[in-house]
Amino acid sequence: MSATGAGGLGRPQLVIVGAGPRGTGLLERIAANAPDLYAGSGLDIHLVDPHEPGAGRIWRAAQSPLLWMNSHAEDVTMFTDETVTMKGPVREGPTLHEWAGLDGRTFADRQIQGRYLRWVYDRAVAELPPGITVHHHPRRALRVSGPREGRQQVWLEGRPRPLLADLVVLALGHLDAELGDEQAELASYAATHGLVHLPPDFTADSDLTSLEPGAPVVVRGFGLAFVDLMVLLTEGRGGRYEGDTYVPSGREPVLYVGSRRGVPYHAKIGYDWSGERPPLPRFLGPAEVDELLARPAGFDFRRDVWPLVEKELGFAHYHRLFTVHPGRTAVAWADFEEKYAAAASAVEIQALVSAAVPDPADRLDLAALDRPLDGVRYASHEEFQHGLRGYVEHDLGRRHDPRHSADLSVFLGLLSVYGQLIRLGDIGPWWHGFFSYLASGPPGPRLRQLLALSRAGVVRFVGADMAVTAEGAVFRASSPTVPGFSVEARALVEARLPEPTVGRARDGLLRELAADGAAETPDGLLRVDAGDGRVLDRSGRAHPRRFALGPFTDARAPGAFTRPRTGGPAFRQNDATARAVLAFLRERSGRAAA
Q1: pLDDT-derived band at 10, boundaries 50, 70, 90
Q2: What local confidence, expressed as pLDDT, does residue 69 receive?
Q3: In 456-568, where does DSSP find H-type helix?
Q4: How far is CA 60 from the centre of its chain?
Q5: 3-state class (DSSP) for residue 546
Q6: C-alpha closest to that of 76 among 581, 587, 564
Q7: Peptide bond before 544: cis, by omega within 30 degrees of 0?
Q8: Phi then psi dihedrals of residue 3, to 5 deg
Q9: CA 320 to CA 296: how far, in whole Å?
Q10: Which segments carry the region annotation Disordered (predicted)?
């Protein structure tokens, strides 16, 4: 059941800060585990979030219906299944497409996903045992205080007295951030010279009204934030598509987009899996992670971890190629697999693949995938527009052609690898970006729209390693991809999410937590116990009463919801935290009763 008031002081009190998908997923796991683990004298669960429970901020109803999810409706679930490695019970439930009655291949808009998340929340609340009550506080949490061994105080905006909590779980989701040095300098320059500078932000929250029709805008970032920007500044301003042609409204700016790679993220794969799945993990599993964690001197990601990742993804790729497309290979799979497993270096693997896979297009080259424009030069800006459209068209064709189903096998390999790497803690930002670029790109229709916008001249490509300078009262962008070309604009948009760092989080709660002794990684993530999510201090001690889940921690998972039957790491984490919370509160309830 649900209520809005605070519970009595005699009952155990749990505060969950953040009621979006992660907080909702934790509540679902509490409901699933409570019948077996919690037979205490009632429990009050306080959800603190200024936004509606379930949807939270990112999936709230108050956003443009033009913005889509980034996954097929059949690939989105909030419910566990038999593939999730956890101690708690499986509680199956509908995927988004089953719940909404959508075609499974639909890319639903975010408002529909928000309604699905609200339904999941309501179901979790309804499934809580009698005596457990949920209270939603539509406010922001400002700070957490209290002794390690005593009740915590959670201070809320606009409330003079804190919530008292036996345990606190931070499920804050994505964070806003204060400007870093470079962004602060650009913002200052823009203010001084009357320019427009939009720093990293959630595109749906950005005020785009200052981007003038017909004016050039430099856009740095070619991922999902850019796709949202592209949609809101074209269809969102009255433009429309007639087949493969974009018909402008006349209100669009001209977007000059570039990034480190200079290309958009790879399109979502547009066909279904069939046949045998690759037996993963094979070369990067629990045993390998245990060995890395046991090294007295620690490990280096590039030296020690990346070779295992490469071998795992290569195994997924070639398993599919050899078993489903044997006509494109020169040896039997059993022979290749034996030699591949025995290969001790990237050079040996490369020699083996060259001899066994005749067509270079059938070989997995992760370096080329990561930086497709490295060393590529175009004679003119217009020539590059034509060249990058060809690149996108090729990517769309390949990602929708089951003859290249080894790509989908690599996607499954990426999911497996991500699930293992979570245990290693903070391994730096590069891996997360690489994963998103290959595995979490835009829907195919969005890239077809990008092509139409490029042909219409509304989007212009700048290139890889785009440099942005502020000089002469303008922003200037250039790239080595087109030597000698640059563009000037009075507006700059940083089309990417803020970095999830504790020190620069605009949310004072996390900064206060760090000041109170919580540990950060070198990249600014909150350190947590990999087993149950308890917050660690600078000496490595786990706080007995504070937990954290989400992308601001060093145990960040690829998403709070995931594709069915892929062993979602976030589900595993939610279950472990829920069980630790219930065990603690059960013991506290028993002491109180005694």
Answers
A1: confident
A2: 93
A3: 508-515
A4: 17
A5: strand
A6: 564
A7: no
A8: -150, 175
A9: 37
A10: 549-571
Q: Determine, yes or no, domain membership for 66.
A: yes
427 within 8 A of 446, measured Cβ to Cβ: no
Neighbours of 161 (CB within 10 A): 9
Q: Round to whole Å and give the CA distance between 282 and 375.
A: 34
Q: Quick one: 537 exposed, middle or buried, by C-beta within 10 A (0-12, 13-18, 19+)? A: middle
Q: Which of 455, 447, 452, 459 is nearest to 241 (CA)?
A: 452
| Helix, strand, coil share of the chain (percent; to 5) | 40, 15, 45
pLDDT digits (tens, 9 = 90+) for 251-288: 999 999 999 999 999 999 999 999 899 999 999 999 99
Residue 214 zone, left/alpha/beta (φ > 0; ψ -120 to 50; rest) = left
- Is 350 inside any structural domain? no
Alpha-carbon gap, residue 207 to 199, rounded angstroms: 11
DSSP code for 302:
I
In a domain, 416, yes or no: no
Q: Does residue 242 lie in a domain region?
A: no
- Tokens (6 digits) for 409: 């096998």
167 in Cβ contact with 44 (< 8 Å): no
Q: How confident is the model at residue 591 (pLDDT cuts 50, 70, 90)?
A: low
Q: E-assigned strands of 80-192?
A: 132-137, 141-145, 152-156, 163-165, 167-170
- CA dist., res. 424 & res. 141, Å (int): 30
Question: Is 205 in contact with 533 (CB distance < 8 Å)?
Answer: no
Q: Contact 373/464 with Cβ under 8 angstroms?
A: yes
Dig out the tokens for 502 from the structure. Answer: 């504790």
Backbone angles phi, psi at 110, to 5 degrees: -70, -25
DSSP H helical ranges for 38-180: 96-100, 110-126
Q: Which 3 state secondary structure label does DSSP give 528?
A: strand
Query: What are 55's two structure tokens?
Result: 């949807």
Most distant pair of Cα atoms in the chain: their distance? 81
Distances in Å between the Cα of 423 and the Cα atoms of 111, 143, 302, 524 are 33, 28, 17, 17
Whether 14 contacts 585, CB under 8 Å: yes
Query: Which residue matches tokens 């009698």?
Result: 130
- Sequence-distant (≥ 6) Cβ neighbours of residue 275 within 8 angstroms: 323, 324
Total number of domains constituting the chain: 1
CA 24 to chain CA centroid, Å, is 17
Quickly state the pLDDT bin for 7 (edges 50, 70, 90).
very low
CATH number at residue 547: 3.50.50.60
**Interhelix angle 444-455/381-399, nearest 10 degrees:** 160
Pairing of strands 196-198, 491-494: parallel
pLDDT per residue as tens digits for the range 331-387:
999 999 999 999 999 999 999 999 999 999 999 999 999 999 999 999 999 999 999
- The rounded distance, in Å, linking the Cα atoms of 222 and 373 is 14
User: Token pair of 230, please?
Assistant: 């592209």
How are beta strands 245-247 and 240-242 bridged, if at all?
antiparallel
**Structural domain boundaries enclosing 63:** 2-177+500-593
- Dist CA 219 CA 252 (whole Å): 14
Tokens matching residue 7 = 């519970």
